Records
---
Amino acid sequence: MQGKVLSCEVKCWEKRRAHRDGKQLGPGGIPHEQVSPNVVERVDACVAGPENEVEEREQHENDQDTTWFGLDRDLGGDPVLSEYRRYAAIMMANAAEISTVQYPALVSFVGQTNAGKSTLIRLLINPVQHQDSPAGLAAPVVGRGDSELPTSADVHLYADPGSFSATQPILFADCEGFEGGERNPVASGGGSVRGSQSQPIRRKAIPVAGSTHNPFRRFMPGTRRALAWARRDAPDRERTSKRQYAVAEMYPRIFYAFSDVIVFVLNNPKTMEDVVEKLLAWADTNRSKSVNLPSKPYAIIALNKCPNSTPDALWNTLEATDNLYKSMNSQIQNNNTFQAYVKKWESSRLRISDMEELFRCYYSKVHVIRIPDKSRYKLLEQQRDELYLIIRDCCSKSLMKKRESRMLPDTDEFGIYISLAFDHFSQTLEEPFDYVKASLRHQPPPQTMADKLYTFARLVAQRLGLQGKIETLFAKLTDMVASCLMLGAARKRLFGQPDDWFKVETRSSVLSRGPGYKDGVVGSVRDGSSIQEQCQAAVETYFNYEVPCQFHIESHNVLSVTGGFDCRQRKATHGEMHRSSIKYISDDRWGKFEHDFNPTKFNWPDRILERMEEMQKDATWYDNGDSRQARVLAHGKTLQRFYKSLTDDLGIFSNSVCLCCLSNPPDHELSCGHIICLECAKDFGRSDDPLKVIVDQCPMHDNLLRHQVTRQPTVIGVQPPHSGLRVLVLDGGGVRGIVELSVLRALEGRIGIPLHRFFDLVVGTSTGGIISLGFGHELWSIDECIERFRALVGKAFTPRKGQEIRGIRHLQLFIKRSKYETKPIEDALQSAFGDGNLFGTRQKNGSHRLKVAVAAVSEAGTKSLVLSNYNTNDGSGSPIFGEKSKLNYQRYRPTQREDELRVWEAARAASAAPGFFRPFVKARSPSPDSDVFPEMMDGAILHNNPIDIAIAEARKLASAQEQQPIPDLVLSVGTGLPKYTQTEEESSSRSTNLKDLAVQGKMGIHRRAPFIRTIFTMISYQIKLNLDSERRWVAWSEPLLRDPQWKDRLYRFNPDFGEEPPPMDDVGKIQSLSNNVVGWIENHADVQEKISQVACSLVASSFYFERVGKPVQVQSSSIQLRGLIRCRISENSQEIRALGAFFASCHSPAAFVVEDSADGDGDLRIEIPVGKLREHGLYEDIHVDITISSETTNTTIALDLRGISKNRRMFNISGFPRQLMQNGFQ
């Protein structure tokens, strides 16, 4: 086959003489082959380069969107590493297709300039075959055959369509050729500098007429990092500031640390000896720059454009690999370069006998594959398939290794870890990147007991400098942990001998996650494990991930600056080699992890049990039958001794573990700054009011220190036992948030009392998240919320300069990728919310803040994130209907309080609408131990109506506070119904049509133009905004509305104005929207009735029943109980008067009704003294005697409000109906 390729049908193959006798040969002596025309078309579409420079330039402009990271200059002319949001964009598209957790694999293509890396990736992606796949729309640009310049600039990232929706999606990284670094690639306008030598990195400028450069990508949103080793005062700046230095030195370090597979692409080399030398040199340089990696990368040597004269056997990958080893084995003793590596490893006590052993020092395994010239279509497709299978197999094995080491990052974790690597290598190219330390900076709140003990051990070790002294550390922790377990046993009423419950499997000791890793997580223990197993797991986790190897070699050189060789590898990632983290030492030593400590022999659980048995015999630990109060007092003494021994100041702090009991997440900040859980507040505080706990002194300080740091008591608001929660849920919608506020103002006007007095939990997303934080956390009145909301959106949606000019507006969207600037919205949020932390103090101006949660989404769009001003056990809660919630979201709570989100930052993260604002990026602390937040976007992407999250959070809170699992009331408020309620098919069709508009280029394989994609993002976002909220509510509420327990508890307001809601950024429509809500209410009697019912339900829920004394058995089966009907808002006389006015509007006296009383007189009715409420502003507890027929009787106490609502008169008080004897006769 030469020159032009001719394709013909199968039926005419035998008609040609050359095909019949097979004697006519093509180039290289290869017979003519029968090839399907489809194969020819696919291969040609993949390998054919642009015909001229103009077409090449156009393709590279379209390919700018795929840039992952690259080199640039800042405004001062200094080099920077620019990271773009390509990875997040790929994974977000993936998240829209599937709902399962994914663990991405990175396959990096490196090697010579113009070796064909881009062509190989294009063959693997096969854009013609996958043109309808979301992943298949992007493929690399193939270089022109007549150009010697590098093709692509920097590093581009592409998704593999074949694994796009799999558990392990494969990503292909196309790196700029290492030998082309000094010549600007074609994609960066290389033609204009052709032939130039040693040019420093050039900053792109705004384009002018006739310019051949494409600067747009350089201004697209991303993260820029200054290169400390290339700044103006850096040594050898002339060399380090050049493109070639960064491409050859920094890029390989990143690829070696994070690649599952590295594909070295070389153009048909003259000798394999040269190939092996390059591979070994590349690996030897970069391996020492990363420590504690979960696995070594696999390597594939792709020999591209192999001649037709290649023996048939060498097209087989196994034969080709074996041939490489055999040919190099004969050279290993003769080649000086090979000998240097062999001697290096022999000095590390590792004997190298052949080339395969030498390769395995650097790679998990090496494969060799030959790729033919494009003229051999059939063989080319065959080798392409073989390469793809090898990549899939290597990625699968790499995943298994990471899973075994319990360091398998999911989509979001991978993005965070590699971002930390960018941070690291921007600062230094000498110090190794520590994978374990990076992973420990991003952890979900600890859930299992093992997690909490592990976190506590880390805090104490850091405080006392005991990181490597594990035996000393855990010996010190023994007394404290034993005391906490004794207190915990009393709380769970596990009295008796410690051995009776310490070794028994208990569901309550285990939840679902470990510290930071899923699917084989660090420290996770199987469900049903005992406390003993949890304690052992904590020791083993700390030993595996915190304690370095003890291998050490003394230095015999008196001039040495290193002091010898110390291995710093952790046990979980040690492998077969000792490695140092000192930048001056790159030599490794053969050997496995060494340490004197043995977790099994140390047997920490037995030491804890022995200490608890000693406490059990001590009279101070029990009083009249092991009472809880006796253990609280004894534990308090242990706390004072332990924390006094740490330091002479305030000690340690944690936002994720209660340092008093090590059992619960902390939730209440004391005046000294420590945060404790509610149970500890109750145990160490006093309660003069059933709705308050007062903690006079922090239990972690001894008496002397208490007087120094505690200046005032801490007042903590608590929920009445067995009551129900009142939940407010707010949708997203931009400026249409004024609709929600207008609805809430109408409801507040109906009651006459500030509305935040009637809710316990507020959950919002997007604009609803901002309102939730203002209303619930800052305790703004509804009128103040409206005033601040108007001011905020007016600033946030300030048009960029030049927006009134159509061309400029389009150019800004193209360059910036967001319609609005970031600074105005952040300034507006900071002005509104100040600089206070989201989590910490629970009071403002003497009033208790409501519990508030706002929904955000990780930048990759794969995970819902909850940002809350409270803590809760994320695995706790009684499932409704007996089913475990399938809702997948994660709460971010940093361990250290200095890493906590500000309130304004939570608002910014929750409202970063795609296409309108850039994702929120929290500034990272320079401390290597600080927690790292993911980049976050508008929670409306996954939960524009966060009802699922709200109910899940309510369930967890109810479980932690001994409340009813079903809320008293759930109120969901939307921002306006769309004019047409589309079916799923119609919505899908419309979305598909929008996508079709964005697909450009012949054969459908070009990417969306940046401007078109930005417009598509905003349009599709608003379609989802309008349609998804109501559907989500209907899908969630319909089955519950048929359940009598839920029927009268669920309410939804979403005004229908009879027209399409305005765009979310149309600030000019705020007043008309507010007016429309007023008109909608006035013109719809059913809406007015619903408002009245919600008002009555909220008022009724402000009353609760408190049992007094013990129940009495009055007859053979009947039981008499005494109690009080109390009011949650009884302190404020003005609000009590308003409550009296509300009751006065009833058609008959408002009264409490105890239904189904067993005293034989029917329902018990107790009228409310409305006159006293209105005149004196005083509510006095109402005494009530209730007789029930048995312990299992369901009792209802309701408020009779006849006349306020036309269709309903009875409204249950909080927590009813329920069994009043659910705790028996205790």
---
Amino acid sequence: MGVKWTPEQESAIIAPKDSSLDNQTLLVAAAAGSGKTAVLVERIITRLKDMDNPLSVQELMVVTFTKAAAQEMSARIGLALAKAMESTEDAAMQERLERQLNLLPSAHISTLHSFCQWVIRSYFYKLDINPTARIGNEAEMALLQQEVLADLLTKSYEEGLYNIYELADFFSDDKSDAGLTAKIMSLYNYAMSLANPDGWLRKALEPYKEAMSINPSETLWGQYMWDNHVAVIDRIRERLERMEQILLDPVGPHKWQNIYDNQLAALGMLSSAQTWDDMGEACKHTDTFIKDQFRMGSKEAQAFDPILVAEFKSLGSQNKDDLKAMQAAVFTVPEATLQDQFKAQYPIIEGLVELTIAFHKAYRDMKQEQGIMDFSDLEHLCLALLVEPGTEDDPQPSDVAKELQDTFKEIMVDEYQDTNGVQETIINLISRIDNRFYVGDVKQAIYSFRMADSSLFMEKYNTYGDTDAVERRIDLAKNFRSHENILAATNFLFYQIMTKEAAELNYTEAESLIPGRIVEDAPEDWVGGDVELQLLDVSKDTLSASESDEDEGDDPENNERELDFIIQRIKEIHAAKKKVQNPDGTFRQIEWRDFAILRRTLAGWGTRAVEAMRQAGIPAVVNERDGYFEAQEIQLLLALLSIIDNPEQDLPMAAVLHSGLVGLDANELGALRLSGEDSLWSLMPAYAEEAQDERLLAFIGHMERWRTLSRRHGVTDLLWDIYESQDYVNYVGAMPNGLVRRANVLALYDRAKGYEASGFRGLFRFLRFVESLRDSNQDMPLANVVSEADNVVRLMTIHKSKGLEFPVVFLSGVQKRFNMIDLRSELLIDKNAGLGLKGYFPDIRVSFPTMPWFYVKDVKEAALKAEEQRILYVALTRARDKLFLTGFVKGFKNSAGKLSSLGELINNVAAVEGQQLPTDIITQANTYLEWLIMGFTRHLDGGNPLRVAIEYEGPTYFDLPDKKCRIKVEIHDGSLYGDLDYKADIDETTINKVRELQAVNSVELPQEIIDRFNYSYPYSDATRRTAKISVSELKRRFQERELEAGTIDTLNEPIVTVDTGAKRAVSDAILGQAIKLDVCNLDSDATSNADSNDTSKANSDVTSNTAVPTITVSADDLANSVFGRKPQALQSEEDVLTGAQWGTLMHEAMQWLPLAQYTQASLTKELDALVMKGTFTEEERNLLSDTSLYKFFSSDLGKRLIDAKRIERELPFSMLFEGKRVYDTLEDGENLFLQGIIDTAFEEDGEWVLVDYKTDRVKSGEDLIERYKIQMDLYKEALQRLTRMPVKACYIYSFRLHDAIIID
């Protein structure tokens, strides 16, 4: 039975067939859980099955966000193709689908980085880059950046460039210029996410330059400030209009008429201001109108309606807050002063921009010199190939881009909301306006820290049309993941808080989640039900709310209370054996793996939570995105490495001595410190001898050995010695969360190994590299030690959970404040808003906010909070059956009965009429809890506990979409939670038996279990054979057979030892013989007999198995050679060139040489031209045999190839074949999956002629036939199955025999 698609999914799959157009660009806005990946795969299969408009998988380009997603996508397509083949009886369709399946390995299904790498590799000869360039690892690039920037800054200081001293004074402290370095790297990294980095940087300077010559009110920033200020004035006016209506009511609070009059006067004064300075004067005097208090005696209050009193007070209080804030507005600074600030800022911002551009150039040149690239280079080099020179500001496609436009019939982009400006430009250049397929969800755009630009998606979302539009939008709103109540509660919340002004998107019916999964006949013990907001009131044990709001969310004690609550709830649900629903609709008992705890960040919480949960008997694992260098086991290792490098450092020395590595307690450490005035290391020998402390004596011995090892060997050898001598890996493995700790320790070894593999050496430099990673917040992820099959509770960040789903989700820590620390920086960066720089008083070295800084801060803060809303949306849509939201609050009132900030929030939103909440209320939120309270307060049942908590008596607007969703809000006494000292539910007797390795009980096992324990797999031989085999492995297997039969003596023997000083190699005439280079004759006719004898002996050793005569070649014989200096890519310690390596070069020559009639001279010229194009290096060119290649093109087979009309070179294929053809021990019917590349096939009289090139050293063609008969048969079979065209002849062309051998 086929999948039943929704109408919207069907449209996304078949478009443009449901429209009047032949081609369309589609934007598929796919909500969480809507099956977008399944739709994308089905669209690909549908396109491939379309016989009327045939499309090959090689004509598709599918871009995914990660390599894992690309692999999964490719696997899904392969499975879908196989199923489609099985489900059809149409022979033509089967033939077409089989061909697509065979072509799938060569399809472009990859990340954009991988695609860019392919483009660069294919067209690198058009770029000014080293053809052997490689992608450097993170360690290598970080250190290279440090070196380049250090050199650039040194030069700048010496020559006084880029206003360097003013920059250093502004951004750095007295100790170093690390602050300036960080700002340059921050600006550089941001600019590199854009298509034209240098152009954008210079464009960001223009507003500053312009501001020096115009009035501040006319600048971009001034207009923004004025518009925002007017918007605040309009809000005050709206509130006063409502306050007037309340006062006109007979039971309105007439006592407060004066408050209304004063605020109305303030409004009039502000509204009349027409110039910047006039507005400034008005703002300075607003305090005159906000001095009155909302006071009313209890007897007076009886005369007024308490609901109207509460509403009037709320509106008036909001006006007072706005008027008070105006006293510090930028308008209070005169325009002349502001213009002086701009003039002072310009040299600093100009110097920073020019210095960043200079770093970009210097870093690019250094990478070019060293033949290395980073990931941003992949995108920018690809872009350089695709953009017509001179059109960088308005990119137009180059010839390469046009060629790729012709190659790809459709470009498909998954997770489009996570792309950036460079990636968008690349996609546009290789596609047309009507052949793009974007799929994603802007509500899940949560990767701005990776420079993703959600505005690209949003622009299309707002402008794309309906069915018959060339650029068409299709919404997939039906969610097949979560229970309908979870979706309804999510809709209920976001209808209110996700608005265009507050979150860049209006959450309307079009954006809402529609249930696609219906739970029917759920058992009574099903875990699902209400969405629950569980809050712990910790006000009894903490400061009053008004005194502690700033710290809310970061209190370790209260975090433990919340954790205790979550642990108890998980244990209750698990002990009750609640049921969860499987994807197929059936129900099963809940397991630990069904729980997930999500938090915005796990730093400082995750490891402690895992430890507490395990003490409570709950298996749990945490995978933190960062925090690696803060992990206890890594900090200890880094401290140890630090004192090995320099033992005079007391702080890290004390940390090591106090740790389990040495084991000194606080008293012993104090006694060591008090034994003298020198460093701990200097005092240690005498103290250890006097105290006869074996631990210290042993540690001193280890330290001396490690210090010697660090000087003579690498960091990896040092680390491994520490691991072995201290049993460190097992030591950390025995700690709580030991699996992760153990993996972290091994990961540091791997990181050190990668560091040294990049050519860097030295412990000090490694520690400096680690320090630079920490300083630049480039933390490593903690090791991943859990798989999907592990039955454990998972703790992860919301970002990590994206794309995943769990039956029961706890969103924890909803009270934690958003991280706004980046908004305090002296320099703020935004793609559209530009650069916001603070002002600076150099005399007192104090910075102050400026108009540009305020402007960029407001833009970035709005974008940050919009993204936080999207992160919350992702979190709420991870749950399948049950969703808990947990956090703690410090009361809704303080001890004096005054409402806390949360209490005021409940009071303000409860009275709001209309679906969407006011923008100013939404944007004031600094936690998820505030947004949840905003939404849930207006729920009839769920919001009641919140309204009761503040004794709210006013009207509440309940008529909202999805108001029937079931929401439960519970407020608990937080003092009842927090004891995490759980006892294991196992008695001491059982524990003692386990310790002594005794049987816990003597229950007789059923026979079925005994049989299972004793089971032996009958096909054990198959487990030692791979299901997938390459042609190279196939060739080796055939050689093994010959070795077993005695027809050859060895495998992969070297064919020549080459002196790297030779300019050219040996003559074609002696091809196949062992070679002794007469190196001395390069400069002199005299040859040392001793050298000659040594060389003869060496070559005799190499060729002893082949009995080929050794000859001496002088320098004069080196022209027209086959072998010569080995290219760098082929060099090894022994400097031995193997037949396989030479064969690779000859194959590449046959791949790249144009098929034409050649003379010996013209062929040599063509090969030299390939060096100029970058196809071969000069060294590789020296290895190619001009004569052997000429003889092929002059042969009968070569002439037939040249004359052919259809030719396939380097044709990839994959197919299944019977395994017994290769491995005799395999069972009948077992298949192997073969992948390979056919060297050449050309069509002749409607049939294929297959050619395979060989460079094996053989005596006759019969040797090749015997060796490669099975391989050629498989190639023939693959070609026929791939093309459905018969093969008339198969040839092996031997470059050693200069002969074409036909295979019968």
